[in-house]
Amino acid sequence: MKTIMIVEDEAAIARVLAAYIRKAGFDCLICRNGSQAVESFHSAQPALVILDVLLPGMNGWEVLQHIRRKSACPVIMLTARGDVGDRIMGLNEGADDYITKPFEPDEVIARIHAVLRRPPQSLVSSDQVTYGSFRIDFKSRSVFLNGAALSITPRDLSLLLFLAEHPNQIFNREQLIEKVWGIDYEGSDRAVDLAIKRLRKLLLHWPPEEGEIRTLRGTGYQLYANTSD
């Protein structure tokens, strides 16, 4: 079950949102301030965050910046302000949508479904990335290890490129099938496990301190990449 994180300091609003979100078939986690949201985000691995702008202490913009440094998780900003400037700022900072209070809970659920149907934002801003001895050229759909081009089947390559576009972000099998192979895919979800196994074999000589494809038991897969200088 997908988890929606609500970051809202007004208890009444948080309770109403949580009730509608659970009724829509999602799990729900409520954080009452920005610091709690930042602390809980990586362990909770939410499918989407509803983030109030006006929070005590760390405000919503700061929380959004923290999320965007490491994750493309969808974020819907929530605020009492009707200023168009706030909306533009939120979208420029990487928010996926924006809802102004007061709102209809049914509209929020509709926005959640709409945002989750979109392809996730890429955290990669260039045509090529390099993680030590591993280089990916997204434009030519080519990958290189120690300077040598790797031969990969188209389906496995699509999976690897998707993970590389979202370094250090965790995806479960269902998400990978939907985002990489399409919702019309009719094969077993175990195909993801087999594809990951083949990719690991190809990347066997990629030093783990530079990066690797990791399994997070009970959660999913990620392409861990050491992005430190």
Shape designation = elongated
Structural domain tally: 2
**What kind of sheet is the major sheet?**
5 strands, parallel
SSE string: EHEHEHEHEHEEEEHHHEE
Radius of gyration: 19 Å
Q: Tell me what portion of residues adopts beta-strand conformation.
A: 15-25%
Keywords: DNA-binding, Phosphoprotein, Transcription, Transcription regulation, Two-component regulatory system
GO molecular function: phosphorelay response regulator activity; transcription cis-regulatory region binding
GO cellular component, one term: cytosol
Pfam family, one: Response_reg
Describe it:
Helix 3 links the parallel strand 3 (48-52) and strand 4 (75-79). This protein is of the alpha/beta class and 229 residues long. It starts with a strand and ends with a strand. Helix 2 runs parallel beside helix 3, helix 6 crosses helix 7 and helix 6 (154-165) crosses helix 8. The chain has eight helices and eleven strands. The model has no long low-confidence stretch (mean pLDDT 86). It has two domains: 3-117, 3-Layer(aba) Sandwich (Rossmann fold), CATH 3.40.50.2300; 128-225, Winged helix-like DNA-binding domain superfamily/Winged helix DNA-binding domain (Arc Repressor Mutant, subunit A, Orthogonal Bundle). The chain is 40% helix and 22% strand. The chain is elongated and about 55 Å long. A five-stranded parallel sheet has the order 2-1-3-4-5, sandwiched between helices. It has a four-stranded antiparallel sheet with strand order 6-7-8-9, with helices on one face. A two-stranded antiparallel sheet has the order 10-11.
